[in-house]
Fold these 2 entries.
Entry 1:
Amino acid sequence: MESIKRNIAIVCGGDSSEHDVSIRSAQGLYSFFDKERYNVYMVDVKGQNWNVDLQNGDTARVDKNDFSFLLDGKRVTFDYAYITIHGTPGENGLMQGYFELLNIPYSTCSVLVEAMTFDKYVLNNYLRGFGVNVADSMLLRRGEEDKYTEEEIEKRLGMPCFVKPAADGSSFGVSKVKNADQLAPALRVAFMESDEVMIESYMKGTEISIGCYKTKDKSVVFPATEVVTTNEFFDYDAKYNGQVQEITPARLAPATAKRVAEETSRIYDILHCNGIIRIDYIITKDAEGNDKINMLEINTTPGMTATSFIPQQVRAAGLDIKDVLTDIVENQF
């Protein structure tokens, strides 16, 4: 029986500032997977060093020619890669391209969609063409820091505004800028994380996050989570150091909750996503006082610790995360 189990690689680590967060997600996923059904291994990717973490505490070097490793003198090949790297190379299409070349199915969106969702500026402008509400924004590339004056930025986007890496995970390098004098230092911080920086108008409202996955025979949108923090915004400390209140399901009017779920499903289909994605929104009010749904960003490798949004939402939906992961894996066989 052991021999017919699929071998699952939980691919984690990566080369961004969120390496350790990714390891925690991998540990969460490892605990969730159905071990009766799968042989599950954590594969820590860091630069050119790819290693499988073994049960006895040792590591085994991954042969990148075919994504295999040696265990007790026998070669183990992987049937499936569950990618939980936050940032490069797992969230921007690089790792997906590698698995495409090896013809190994994986848990995330395609190379193109990963590259698009990783670049917030590109994604926003693409989805705007499909009628998705997004904040107004401007892009600066390294070497173009003086392309716009502080006055031009303030006139276009207003104050406060957000300065964030355009292509990176969402936890580092983000600043809420309250006046023009704070723009230059905020840009320096963001350029430490990415060669492209997005300056985005501020939207005041209720921040929510909602997960979704689809298979050949089902479409599942989880209950949304409301994010309440006393910090200036949902930053690293709010995300990972408990400086936040997370309310699942979110306190939304039923009609708004339904519209958020429908918009999430629609965006999933527009991009032809795969696996679990999580979309962050801000619910603002229009001139008539109606709820307006504004997309902030899409996370294609959402956090998967026991307290992360997705496991919370799975529980709130009355589902078992073990079954959800099995759905996602088996959908590609």
Entry 2:
Amino acid sequence: MEIWGVVVAAGQGVRFGARKHATRLAGKPLWQWARDALLESGVREVVVVGDVPGGVTGGTERHLSVARGIAEVDAEASVIAVHDAARPLASAALMRRMYLLLAESGADGVVPVVPIADALKRVDSRRVRILDSIDRRDVACAQTPQVFRAEVLRRAHAHHASGDAPHDDASMVEALGGRVLAVTGERSAMKITYPEDLVLAEALLRHGSRPGGP
């Protein structure tokens, strides 16, 4: 099984207020954390999409950036792992579990998910009135990396090359009838969206939540 990785580091960081992928965590840019975890997990090579040394120029939307990264992946690759630079603390151990599940299950993809702790409410467009409640028992938060059989991911991106695309790569594969499995993710693999998230990530590192750990 030849695995390649794609790290998406092309976002503008509007909510973060800066070029998020270049922000340093423990002295290292977020995109490097994501790349290094993929390399440690056993991928052959990582394509980074974004304004970084050796990176591929990103697109105007996330799925277009991913597509540009996939285009740089060797045609012989059998598996592609798509990872967000904004999740620097996803561990190599988690990634290896995902590769194993993909190989053993025959599924088209594997996505890490974590349970939702808060009560969920559906609200109106102005977010001033609660319309109804959502049962959180059947809902989970998807993380990255998301791991797919290469030919399936390529086909999904080709299908969505023009026009709108679902929010993540798993949704794109699912839209074509692909079978995507869930694996238990890691709370420490949180997404860095706001400045306070970086503070939490630094605290997690100080307490031993470091990529590649058990």
